[in-house]
Amino acid sequence: MSEPRQIPVIVLGVGQVGGAFLTQLMQTQTTLAARYGVGFRPVALANTRAALVDASGLLDRAAALAASPDPGEALAASSGALGGLTTQDVIERCAGQGVERAIVIDCTAAEGMAAPLARALDLGYGVVLANKRPLAGPWDSAGTFFNHPLVRFEATVSAGLPVMSTLRYLVDTGDSIRRIEGALSGTLGYLCSRLEDGDAFSTVVREAKAKGYTEPDPREDLSGIDVARKVLILGRQAGWPIELADLRVDPLYPAEMAEMSVEAFLAELPKVDYDFAAYMGALGGVPRYMAEVGPEGGVVSLRMVGERLAAQLRGTQNQVAFWTRRYDDGPLSIFGPGADHRTAAAAVLQDCLYLAQSRLCV
Ligand SMILES: NC(=O)c1ccc[n+]([C@@H]2O[C@H](COP(=O)([O-])OP(=O)(O)OC[C@H]3O[C@@H](n4cnc5c(N)ncnc54)[C@H](OP(=O)(O)O)[C@@H]3O)[C@@H](O)[C@H]2O)c1
After folding, report:
1. For ligand 1, atom 18, which residue shows the shortest CA distance?
2. What separation in Å is there between the alpha carbon of 275 and the centre of ligand 1?
3. What is the reported pLDDT for 360?
4. What is the CATH number of domain 5-160+342-358?
5. 179: CA distance to ligand 1 center in Å?
6. Is the pLDDT confidence value at 111 over 80?
7. pLDDT at residue 16, as a whole number
8. Per the count of CB atoms within 10 A, which of 107, 123, 126, 348 is most buried?
9. pLDDT, position 309
């Protein structure tokens, strides 16, 4: 058997998703070489604290990080790791060392990634994102990434389900998307399931935070902004150059609680329990935090979904429905587990494999 084609990968962000990606890279080396004749060779590994860059390959280092209980910490403690590099510096160093036709993987949650990723595309590199932010920025900068043949981002929306690939398939085969609706947050899905069971809003939020289901500041989930980014990405991929401002986003807490400290916010929460229960009682039905988008914009809000498929969601499950010209008898729906770091990493690896097989960047 001939040697597999080695494709350089630049991994930006070695946290939960980046670490799981390295693990899956190690686990699949033999299979991918045998089945597709490709191998992925990390040439840069970076987080905010440290970076390793070596055009000749960092496979052993990547294997060691993958085997570590805390790959990010292990990277920071690696011998020869460089400090103080930005992600753009890391990309430039790779280019300076003669790395060609690489794939840059954004597994950060960082703002400001649009410029380095655009630079990567200028260098002829492919780009795979788990990070939603560069795709959800102003269309002027984010537009570059949609429908670019070297950019993939399956992991950004309901990573455990084939959502982006299904949407691409619909668009690429000439279907016309009319509307997209979904329950896109595992965390808010969990919350809604508990509300449905009759638990008080404040109890549910506090418990979800204690279990680590929410961000350290639960308002990052409850604000709906993460869901808004996801549905914006879906809308843009459907072909609509909309902005975040075209979405009405209803947070799950009153505006006056937006600026409080986290402690004060948690302490004040029981005060909204009554309003919340009254609101749900008045509307009736099953509460779900839903996102909906069409060509002109959309709405992200708590809704009562009655008999619809979303009412069957349990816990952290996600659902997406595509209304299209071709599926005119009812939407094409995708339903199943919400994302975790392993399914997100698998989506990233699948995207890398797509770019490798398409031979566009390799
Ligand atoms: N976890 C999931 O289930 C999941 C699912 C789907 C999508 N995602 C998305 O995947 C991305 C990563 O999530 P995660 O759970 O792996 O987060 P995480 O554990 O917090 O890891 C984030 C990583 O990015 C690094 N980072 C942040 N800013 C950076 C910068 N400016 N330059 C270089 N590195 C930077 C962090 O470095 P330090 O450690 O040094 O801070 C860390 O290594 C996020 O965008 C998230 O929304 C996550």
Report:
1. 15
2. 36
3. 66
4. 3.40.50.720
5. 30
6. yes
7. 95
8. 348
9. 83
Q: Measure the CA–CA gap between 166 and 331, rounded to whole angstroms.
A: 13
Longest dimension (CA), the chain: 68
CB-based contacts of 335, cutoff 8 Å, min separation 6: 161, 309, 312, 313, 317, 318, 319
Q: Which residues have C-beta within 8 Å of that of residue 336, sequence separation ≥ 6?
A: 160, 161, 317, 318
Whether 315 and 190 have beta carbons less than 8 Å apart is answered as yes
* CA–CA dist 149, 127 (Å, integer): 10
Tokens 């939960």 identify what position?
A: 16
Gap between the Cα atoms of 134 and 110, Å rounded: 9
Question: What is the C-alpha to C-alpha distance for residues 106 and 126, in angstroms, rounded to an integer?
Answer: 11
Please state which CATH number belongs to domain 177-338: 3.30.360.10
CA distances from 233 to 184, 285, 325 (A): 12, 29, 20
Domain ranges of the chain: 5-160+342-358, 177-338
Mutate-to-test residue for ligand 1 from 14, 17, 163, 342, highest number of ligand atoms within 8 A of CB? 17
- Enter the tokens of residue 118: 């655009």
Helix (H) or strand (E) holding 16: helix 16-36
- Tell me what pLDDT residue 1 has: 63
Q: Please state the rounded mean pLDDT for residues 147-165.
A: 96
Confirm if 191 and 205 have CB atoms less than 8 A apart.
yes
Question: Ligand 1, residues 22, 73, 88, 107: which to mutate, most atoms within 8 A of Cβ?
Answer: 107
DSSP letters of 220-277?
A: HHHT-HHHHHHHHHHHHHHT----GGGEEE--SS-GGGSSS-HHHHHHHTHHHHHHHH
Average pLDDT over residues 30-42: 96
Residue nearest to atom 32 of ligand 1 (CA): 48
Looking at ligand 1, which atom is closest to the CA of residue 19? 16
**350 pairs with which residues across the strands?**
none
Residues of the chain above pLDDT 70, percent: 99
- Helix-helix angle 270-283:201-210, to 10 degrees: 120
